[in-house]
Amino acid sequence: MNKRENYISWDEYFMGIALLSAQRSKDPSTQVGACIVSPQHKIISVGYNGMPIGCSDDEFPWAREGEMLETKYPYVCHAELNAILNNVGFNLEGCSIYVPLFPCNECAKAIIQSGLREIIYISDKYAGTDGVRASKKMLDHAGVNYRRLQTHLETLSLSFREQDI
Fold first, then answer.
1. How many angstroms from the chain centroid is the CA of residue 56?
2. pLDDT tens digits for 67-124?
């Protein structure tokens, strides 16, 4: 018998972990996850966008518009930052980060400072914003590579049914 041939690639696997992590986010409008991976294809850390520990996601706002302090923006930690902060002490130098949405300028700073060398993303829908333009300028200057995920997959399903295992 030959090995199975329709298995997912490393990139699809790690992006799948990032997308699954995003399902933990309580943000009603944008759920983003991140997965940090070593050059040896080992998962180092994961994260998703949400409130900092100790800040109740029932008491802080989730609005996208309004007075600054009444929106989510000054409070929410992005998935990339959470994945970096959730790391339990591994050296992130040379690691890659998988994230569905291209990182903002604030996350780009954390990515650069932590030593991550590659970003794999799905969507760059905010490419025209100042934040993402600043992000790319810093990433390019610091030598951090970024690339869009190349896949033929449109979806990837998980089943919790016992008969499917």
1. 22
2. 999 999 999 999 999 999 999 999 999 999 999 999 999 999 999 999 999 999 999 9
pTM of the model: 0.94
Catalytic residues: 80
What amino acid is encoded at 7 in this protein? Y
Q: Helix or strand or coil: residue 55?
A: coil
Q: How far is CA 28 from CA 56, 59, 62, 63, in A?
A: 15, 14, 7, 9
Q: Where are the alpha helices (DSSP H) in 31-104?
A: 79-86
Burial of 36 (0-12, 13-18, 19+ CB in 10 A): buried
Please tell me the distance from the alpha carbon of residue 120 to that of residue 132, in angstroms, as a whole number: 15
Reply yes or no on whether the pLDDT at 131 is more than 90. Answer: yes
Residue 40's alpha-carbon distances to 10, 81, 136, in angstroms, are: 11, 22, 26
